[in-house]
Amino acid sequence: MALDLLKMRYFAKIAELGSFTRASSELGVAQPALSLHIRALEEQLGVQLLTRTPRGVVATEAGVTLLSHAQAILRALDQAEAATKEQAKYPTGDVSLGILSSICPILSIPVIEECARRFPKIRLTVSEGDSQTLRTAVDTRVHDLAVTLDNVAKPASAPLFDERLYVVGPSGHFAPDAALTVEEALGLPLILPTRRHGIRILLERQALIFGRDLNIVREIEGVASTKAAIRAGLGLTILGRGAVHTDEESRTLTAAALTHPDLARRFVLDMPVNHPPTRAVIEVRKILLSVVGKLGAAGHWTCRPPNLSEVT
């Protein structure tokens, strides 16, 4: 039969203090109850552990042996308790966060900064990629969290926000608050990614609806390269609000909202299934949701957030 840790704790305290009375006071346990616990422990082990003397109690030879082991065990338990409480207060561990490339530059930095400020023991790694790459990384548990598009994420993913799409041109190309219909945008000289990308798929679907062909003048993979091509006057493109907000503020690019119909894409939070998140992952997730809300309110993207409580 396994030793009772409570009895061992009581025994160790009595042996260390050499007094039932003092141990009773420190432990907050009545002296008769302590005596019953020690008697039960001695009966279980079949040896006498303590000897009463006029000056208190002393451990027998068997008691000294048990005391040395009990102290080590109880010290280890106390350390485990302290470490667990420390983890609850200051979570540690590795967290991998994947973010769709087009919004990674504006979303990743505030998440990294807030995580470093609040939880310096969390080792956060942020990676950007396209939606298909992020889905694979979540499925294989390379990423603990991923901000990606709903059309490739698992059905169990949680919605974050809907981002409106814009036609993007060089500086001065569009007036402030400009808008274009989707049908008008289809005829513009467009720089687009290959067919596996979500915006390209969405635009080709709209082209079928309107019975028109997309006017694609160049295919370029990568948001940064596409923006460079636009600044060089090689064409226009279609991007989400988050990808061009800072460029508009710096007046290096201009954008016109797509209307009739309003085109938007939904971002979701994707996570591995059947894999409970660690405390570190939970805390990073909370920070991510907070940053998403703040950036949306600040106008970094036009978003109509679904109920964010669904992912808390």
From TrEMBL:
Transcription as UniProt keyword: yes
Secretion signal, residue range per the UniProt entry: none
Keyword Oxidoreductase: no
Domain HTH lysR-type: from-to ranges: 3-60
Alphabetical UniProt keywords: Activator, DNA-binding, Transcription, Transcription regulation
GO BP annotations listed: regulation of DNA-templated transcription initiation
MF (Gene Ontology): DNA binding; DNA-binding transcription factor activity
Residue ranges of the TM segments: none
Pfam family, one: LysR_substrate
Primary role: Transcriptional regulator of the ttuABCDE tartrate utilization operon.
Assigned protein family: Belongs to the LysR transcriptional regulatory family.
Protein name: HTH-type transcriptional regulator TtuA
